[in-house]
UniProtKB/TrEMBL annotation:
Family listed: Belongs to the intimin/invasin family.
Superkingdom to which the source organism belongs: Bacteria
Name of the protein in its database record: Attaching and effacing protein, pathogenesis factor
Name of a matching Pfam family: IAT_beta
Gene Ontology, cellular component aspect: cell outer membrane
The Inverse autotransporter beta-domain domain, residue ranges: 3-137
Native source species: Escherichia coli
A Gene Ontology BP annotation from the UniProt entry: cell adhesion
InterPro entries (UniProt xref): IAT_beta, IAT_beta_sf, Intimin-Invasin_domain, Intimin/invasin_bac
Amino acid sequence: MVLARVKLNVDKEFSLKDSSLEMLYPIYDTPTNMLFTQGAIHRTDDRTQSNIGFGWRHFSGNDWMAGVNTFIDHDLSRSHTRIGVGAEYWRDYLKLSANGYIRASGWKKSPDVEDYQERPANGWDIRAEGYLPAWPAAWRKPDV
């Protein structure tokens, strides 16, 4: 089964600003393991970006899920590329993920600022989302 998410925002000039298409396709899917490929294209801030990647998730009955992934992100508007690797862990009341990014393209002339060059940044992100099982309405979703 292919999972898809479509977000279409059309303004009065019929542009697709802030629109996106995301798809997840399980290559191998059992009750305990899933190998998948995922791709997306989105338009944000007058830039079109795409990504494609592979991942693996292990499901432990109804208790938890852990997985790893690797992606290539490409800015179609400016020809910048970066590679990402990540890990995730989910339980009923907790979602954790961490990703690292390495630039795969170098300096290029910026179309926004004269005599300025730009490139993708190396970096990382950590995300946590959860709630206390006794108080599910008191959830927190910090991004670091």
